[in-house]
Automatic annotation (TrEMBL):
Organism of this sequence: Gossypium tomentosum (Hawaiian cotton)
Pfam family, one: Acyltransferase
Stretches that traverse the bilayer: 29-47, 301-319
Subcellular location: Membrane
MF-aspect GO terms: glycerol-3-phosphate 2-O-acyltransferase activity; phosphatase activity
Family statement: Belongs to the GPAT/DAPAT family.
Limits of the Phospholipid/glycerol acyltransferase domain: 369-470
Recorded GO CC terms: membrane
Record InterPro entries: HAD_RAM2/GPAT1-8, Plipid/glycerol_acylTrfase
The entry's keywords: Acyltransferase, Lipid biosynthesis, Lipid metabolism, Membrane, Phospholipid biosynthesis, Phospholipid metabolism, Transferase, Transmembrane, Transmembrane helix
Membrane topology, as annotated: Multi-pass membrane protein
Signal peptide: none
Official protein name in the record: Phospholipid/glycerol acyltransferase domain-containing protein
Annotated GO biological process: cutin biosynthetic process; phospholipid biosynthetic process
Amino acid sequence: MLKPYSSLSLSLHIKYVPMPSFHSTKNTMAKFFMNYFSFFFFLYRLVFKPSKNPKAFHRTASNIHANEGKLYHKYPSFAHRANLSKDQTLLLFNVEDALLKSPSLFPYFMLVAFEAGGLLRAFVLILSYPLLRLVGEDMGLKIMVFVCFFGVKTKSFRVGSAVLPKFFLEDVAVETLEVLKKGGKKVGFSNVPRVMIESFLRDYLDIDFVVGREVKVFRGYFLGVMEDKKQSNAALETIIGSQGLGICDVIGISGFKGSLQYHLSSHCKEIYLVRKADKRSWQRIRRDEYLKPLIFHDGRLAFMPTPLATLAMFMWLPFGITLSIIRAISGILLPYRLSIPILAYTGFQLSLSPNPSLQSSNTRKTRGRLYVCNHKTLLDPLYLSFSLQKDLTAVTYSLSRVSELLAPIKTVRLARDRDQDSKMMEKMLNKGDLVVCPEGTTCREPYLLRFSPLFAEMSDDIVPVAMDSHVSMFYGTTAGGLKCLDPLFFIMNPRPSYNVRVLDGVYGLSSFLGGGERSRFEVANHVQSEIGKALGFGCTRLTRRDKYLILAGNEGIVNKC
């Protein structure tokens, strides 16, 4: 018989647990979120406050004046100083804070990544840009150096001497340049790698000493890691100690971030501080204000690669490659009456200024006409042929095999032997019109190189042609890269343009009494000066050899591709 529950020996002990109420749950969640957000804002203040509010870590101008007396001054007051002795003054300046107007170093590292490392390395750098904005300035600099330099050969690195000077010069402030002219010996120091700034400062601004951080090297390759700041500071200390003897005034110019370093405050008699507001009012120098003219520079990018501009370039690349293929097929396969409208429809601008006197005198002749033009890109003879709508034969000094095969007009390679080349040109002129670029190489800037006088001996019917081209994204010339890609990069631009101006004809060597070497050069110099006047370009005596020695370190060897 079953016993009732009350009589069982096993008893159940039930503990009552009250259910949480709505108000207690709300209080618990509120405490959790308060603790979470408190920790979050603590991290935010720890990470972001140094970059957002530099006053917490750097003394302001008022504090500096209050604590240091008359040692520190605001930068604008330096411009009014006229009592500087060039023999008794040592001027120290920070490159990024006191010389360049741009507040960001990212575009210069993008140039290094693209030109020295290629498209993939540049893509990695633009992808890392959000991270660069989150971390501090020093850590961001280390990341950019690693991405741009890791694995790059030291012997082949010429971006610092061939590419960066152009962009640095375009960013120099007029106010700082005037200050540098007042000082005696000048020392430029920077936190960026020395290989990026040394050539620019020494060759174009006549800076006596350059101090920058060294990038570590292993077996001929950059490791992407910079030496410690102490080594560059020690080098600056050594320069100040050796050059400061017998000099009355040692003056420093820097920003607030680097103005209180020991090597400045312990040696400089005065330190002038540059504020961000000062830099915003600065003006960039014009080309005619350069201390030395910029004639040669290399690299593919024709724009300052800011983050937004670089992003636009990567977005354009798929369209640009497709558009370049359409333009190339149109120019190579189609006749002039079809290819010219198609090129214009795709955004290519081609303008021609013909010479009516030459057209009226275009009578039947047994020999062809010799067109002599300055050299902007490898496409000069092609667009002259498009403009005149006639077949021409182009004489080339150095052209890749791929470009020769794809050229829609006939090309003849010269051997750089005077007797052999003159016979070849004589033969071509007997067959038809000939076009030659006596500079022997391209020049991007508004200057003309020395004209080789060989063409003056070939014909008495010489027609000078002034050529000029403009691009917005990629240069269609290179000295250290693959020349077979030059036409592709040029037609990859969104709206490339070519201006062709046919000038009055000139007589050849036979028109000069006596002939000889002097007359030969007189004809070449006369043609050069006429083209220079038409374009507003300066005439120089520089040659192809000078260009390649400066940009590529060789005498003009063409990369085969």
